[in-house]
């Protein structure tokens, strides 16, 4: 049996002529909590749907729990819990009916897990799913996803739109399901605090291309921020030369603040040759590193390249 | 039979859960469907009741295309589409299908509920309507269990629409392309069901259509609405549905275009026609008329004798505009073939005909009547229904009218000959051994002829109630009776006037019309035998022409001759255009199948004796269209890197069905994107791992230096 919960090899998808996932190759280790990150439209949901066999890839292969995604058997699907970002439910069913309906499909349905999550979210068993708040829907959706005690849990942006309390409840439930068990959680999210809190590994999609696939610690250690100080405004270069790994650069009066992935000695040297009086490494936390990574690549910050916006907002460079 | 995917006890538990869920979701649609069908029936029954109460000429229902045919189809489509359309996309589809159960089981769960709801929604109003119709006092019409059959066929045909609704709901395709095309196939199925001669044949059509539509729906569901992931059998079924739909759309479009073409040109609705007519003076002439189809009038262009020479008295244009046949009184066509269908008035076709159950008598009369009369075949009696109370008020037998519901002791012997006395208040009823005159107003019946030993009566017709009768008196009032050996002409009182031996050369002919030229010297009588509706084979029919027997006033046969073929309508540019369109669009396979069954299709307007040029042109165009279609299909296939096997299949389809094959290919297949190969620079499809031109694989995305890949993570595998 392979030790990977999920494997993707050259997975590629198109919508019409637009490539939405480009040659994605990655491995999700069993037993890990794996965060799948990227901006809106970067291809996360499409990738998840291909992994689950819900969408045919243009090319490439993937497997889930060692089985080709195109031919997932009933048994394998029983071992893979999936929660979509819209928290799909049958609106007319009550909370209790949702549980009863789902339980018919699973041989190892754990009613206690269902009840405890429903209780955790303070859901009325008689309430209709269509009448639940977004947070309550997420709770119910999570309950029916976790109750079959899946070996692999795939959650597509489960906390989207939830208030902090609901988010925390969701996280606690996720942690609950993984404790002591050889379970894998593969989830996409935009909430970086949550990712840092629970994830062991991350993968980052940038405009349909996988740019990072590593442990959280490795990522944190790989993204650096530097402040290159110049003596005066006259000596500071208006543009940065090509710097390998440059994620983001922002110019202030006398400084260039740059975020760089996996910098080498050559990287620092390329800053120094610009004429910087000094180059200082600044502390960067996970959220900043991630935002630096997910933001627009290149040397300019949001407004600096936009003349109209600069004029409108009175930003001075 | 156990449906695929439903295997174990656990499977049945799962199926029950799916059925419960589907029922809860589809029930509102089912209720709406029931309301629609019930409303349709309510409208039909109210209309029938109101027509019969007003003494309308006929209250017989239409069994050909009824409102139930439409409502059952509509609600079938509605239920099918509604069942899948909410769940076919995105997260809802994932929530439905990502569970430990096969998509086949999910599909069958839907079908069990959807089909059951459809049957209930359509059958309950149907049963109620039939009960209402069968209950005395509701409809002035005999009721027979066989009258249920057309509705039963419609009910089952609605299931085809249900599956088509599932296909339409599931298909990921543009609405004007392959998504709605299966609807055309369902319409074709209904057309066949309406046209079948027996209920069994209609059931066969429905069963075949259900098999195809059901398989296509199943495949579309398990393929998530896409074509490529489906099993081969469902791809074939979907291909059939789409191609039939495209063909139906093509036929409708061609029909609309030809109507536009026909009515859009000046003079296009004028039809030049030559036929033989009896002139007022008793001379048989060849008359050429220009028929103006839009205004239903005609202009005489030319009058010639049988040898083709112009007749002197009709040389000037004014004489041609006179009524040429003034004083010539004719009967309706007298049937000579008991199995022939002689009147358009028979309701429906095949098993949908009520003619096999009852024949409405006096129907079509211009004045409303308080009583409706039906010759009911099973008891061999005429039933009289009061239109106001809608109840049976009596029976007419050979002995006369007997009031009340009790059957009189004597029945008419043998089957009623094909009835053509539509609209007459005193129609003739012909049976093998006797002919009766019925007086519907007086409720009397009189035997006007008894068959002689050795002969059987085939049909009878009277000279009718035309205004000419009042002008010409008793000579204009006559009945004609055709038997297996003779044609008898007698007065309406039954006095023999003429006996003619049947023309031996007209054996197997379908009808005879008896005409009398009252203004001509000696008031000659003419018998015109026509081959249509007879028992001639197709080959015999193609060369048979009308035959005339002319009998003088003394009863002696003057002449007996066959008429040269006179149906010489003009072949103009319209027909050549139609010929070209037919040649280009008729699939080669259809022509070959037609040949093998001996039905050489002769295009419109080209008679068998005409030049073979139209036939050659038509075949030539079909071959060219097939060849071009095959080349187009191969070109498209190569563009999208089909493997050789797939290319051969589509090339064969292109050859077999011509342009339709190209359209089906374009409609069915989801075409992958193409992009430039960095190795060879040519366009390549994105769904192949290697370039189809140079074999180069797709490269990994270009690195931008920001990559953070941890070897340990990848190496775990």
Helix- and strand-based class of chain A?
alpha/beta
Cα end-to-end separation of chain B: 44 Å
> Biggest interface and which pair forms it?
A-B, 64 and 49 residues
In quaternary terms, these chains amount to heterodimer
Our estimate of the beta-strand percent of chain B is 15-25%
Mean pLDDT of chain A: 86
**Rounded to an integer, what's the Rg of chain A over CA atoms?**
23 Å
Name the features.
heterodimer, A: 317 residues, alpha/beta, six-stranded mixed β-sheet, four-stranded antiparallel β-sheet, 11 helices, 14 strands, elongated, disordered C terminus, B: 717 residues, alpha+beta, six-stranded antiparallel β-sheet, five-stranded antiparallel β-sheet, 18 helices, 24 strands, flat, disordered N terminus
Task: Explain what this protein looks like in three dimensions.
The complex is a heterodimer of chains A (317) and B (717). Chain A is an alpha/beta fold. Chain A has eleven helices and 14 strands. In chain A, a hairpin with a 2-residue loop joins strand 4 and strand 5 (67-68). In chain A, helix 5 (134-146) packs parallel to helix 6. Residues 301-317 of chain A have low confidence and may be disordered. Chain B is of the alpha+beta class. In chain B, helix 7 packs across helix 9. Chain B is flat, with a radius of gyration of 33 Å. Chains A and B meet through strand 1, strand 2, helix 2, strand 10 and helix 8 of A and helix 1, helix 3, strand 24 and helix 18 of B. Strand 10 (209-215) of chain A pairs parallel with strand 24 (708-709) of chain B.
